[in-house]
Amino acid sequence: MDVIHTIGRRKTAIARIYLKEGKGDIVINKRNYKEFFPVETLHYVVEQPLQLTDNMGKYDIKVNLKGGGITGQAEALRLAISRALLKINPEFRPVLKENGLLRRDPRMVERKKPGQPKARKKFQFSKR
Question: How many domains does the chain have?
Fold first, then answer.
């Protein structure tokens, strides 16, 4: 099996992964994923597709992550891992799809409008 390259996105975060057979190392920007993501819930998010398909510890994953915050990056990585597992074995599709791991979350930050302090917030109205 050669190296499988996939991409995952969420908000402004982009995760490019290179997946190959190995002993289960996940390296993000040359750091271990448990060191890169300090929160335990984000470890679960990253491991979720591997746990659902019983592939924990079977593949080495090298990740280039950029943009966004840590939650967006973790979810972008989850999508990329799910897509890579699908390339390895198309039979994983029902399990991953059932848990919503194959859908790119389309929600983005709404742009700031002119004459307003934020996207929807208005300056205080003064009648006089």
Answer: 1
